[in-house]
Amino acid sequence: MKWTVEFVRAGIRLESLSDDRGTLGTPGMWYRVSDGTERGLTTTRNRGDALRRFQRRVLRASGA
Q: 3-class SS at 26?
């Protein structure tokens, strides 16, 4: 299995993985968002949820 990378903005990556065998638990597409660090990286089945979780994490880190 290999993650496919799509650059959303400068330095922000949306990674997707097609897991047909259910290696991550449930077969299907999986998404995660990264800014180059692996801290707090969460994997989810929904693309929008991955982007929202990343946005909340960045806002908390900035103190906003």
A: coil
42 token code pair: 């969460």
The answer on pLDDT for 38 being more than 70 is: no
19 pLDDT higher than 80: yes
* pLDDT at residue 52 greater than cutoff 80: yes
State how far the Cα of 45 lies from the Cα of 10, in Å rounded to an integer: 24
Q: Which residues of 24-55 are buried (b: 16+ CB within 10 A; e: fewer)?
A: eeeeeebbbbbbeeeeeeebbeebeebbebbe
pLDDT tops 70 at residue 11 = yes
Tell me which residue has tokens 């880190």.
61
Which uninterrupted H or E stretch holds 12? strand 12-19
